[in-house]
Design brief:
Number of strands: 6
Strand order of the largest sheet: 3-4-2-5
Shape: elongated
Radius of gyration: 35 Å
Number of domains: 2
Structural class: alpha+beta
Distance between the termini: 71 Å
Length: 377
Amino acid sequence: MSKLGNIGARLYRGEVGYDFIGKRKIWYAVSILITITAIVGLGVRGLNMGIEFSGGAVFTTPKTSVSSTQAQHQAEAASGGHAATVQKLGNGGLRIQISELDTKESVPVQEKLAKDLNVPVEDVNTQLVGPSWGEEIANKAWLGLGIFMILVVIYLAIAFEWRMALAALIALIHDLTITVGVYALVGFEVTPGTVIGLLTILGYSLYDTVVVFDSLKEASRGITKQSRYTYGEIANRSINSTLVRSINTTVVALLPVAGLLFVGGGFLGAGMLNDISLALFVGLAAGAYSSIFIATPLVADFKEREPQMKALARRVRAKRASAAAKNDSQGSAEGAAESGEEPQDDAPAAAGSSAAGPRSQPASRTRGRGRPSGKRR
């Protein structure tokens, strides 16, 4: 931990760092590839919409020895061919979802399932869900998402600037697209828990981005009054100075979510935990990635197109070229002195004086000091 703290302190002071901004084209290419994969998965496989959105019946049974696969076949046969989804619960029971099943059809299906699973009919809990409820939830989710994005853009534009607001919006859309694409590829069911998870990651996705933006805002004040760093280099220093903080907050947030996803959902068989935790896990990871590799490099791209930043970049390059030339001339002079050669002067006057013979050395000013008469011997 002390080594990690030392690295964080050195990153903050700018003593070490990684060139995130200089390699931004690589990160853009990786993000485009991941986003295309998510969109293709979404278009090919589509989302597995839960019964809350498609309508149907949910049957919850007590503990039974029948496997999930066998129960699925029995449920589809009992419902007359309707699609069924079966999930094993932590207490050994089953949660059976049958889509597009109305009230009249649910009663005989409940009796048939109880008989096939060898459980009492009265112990089979039945819940009916209409598709209108799911449609209402989806519409409210879209409305909330739109209002949230508008408010975020307005706030970031006021607190920082419109370029940062635009970059944050692009990063947010990037994170949501990846999360939805992973849902499609994995085949997890989209439930109200999924909607809750997607809305929750919006804030987490922006957290690290705002931290980096705040550091960049402080570091770039009066940037045009100096000629030492370009805007892209200052943005890179801001990423490195907050890198350890971003990693720590992301890991701390991912650990309990991973517990929900792999322990709660995987071992306990809790369906709602799967829905929420997968969205949170993918969204948190994508948000941490986008804040470092997408949002801040985009801001650097937007800012470096400004005339003031272009002029600053020219001044920085000119100053560094002048310093490099000066260092080269000093290095040549030191090399000549070490080899015992007199440095040659290209000026004609100097050449003429060297051709006339050895130069007379001026009398030292300190020669004769300390003697009473002050005269030379």
